[in-house]
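Annex B. Sample input.
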Amino acid sequence: MNPVRQYLDEVREIADQLDVSAIERLVQKLVELRARGGRLFLLGVGGSAANASHAVNDFRKITGIECYAPTDNVSELTARTNDEGWATVFSAWLETSRLNEQDSLFILSVGGGDLEKNISPNLVQAVKLAKTRGATVLGIVGRNGGYTAQAGDAVVIVPTVNPGNVTPHSEAFQGVIWHLLVSHPDLKKKPD
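Annex B, continued. Sample output.
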């Protein structure tokens, strides 16, 4: 099969398999967050960090939700990594930001984190902190969703249709879904 056709067929198959009710739960949790005046903290590593940065812009500008991505400040991120370690880089940042029960943590990740396999331990520690502080945990993740899917309050798992393309599809659909969220009539306040 033509590789271009195959990839696009996979995209169509993923779109058809997305859990609409899980996306609707994300919408509802974000509506509730905005209504209570909470902040949204977006976390991601690698390509998902780039997505988090872009998503901060869209949520702030289009939905009027106050939000931040710790990865946007590379100086603080690398200083914390150097001084405190990679595993706690996000949780330490969130502690300083006084994460609380009014806030939400939004994880963008291919795997969702797994301490046993040492995959994105920084995301796992951040989710654990959020749960102890009473913050809502949201996410768009791939594979089986990892720790984020286990502990989260509203998490969309991007279906795996080709194990060889998990990362590109997961990161691409993070963009599709967050753009759907900011465009949703219950969330959109300003023109994009």
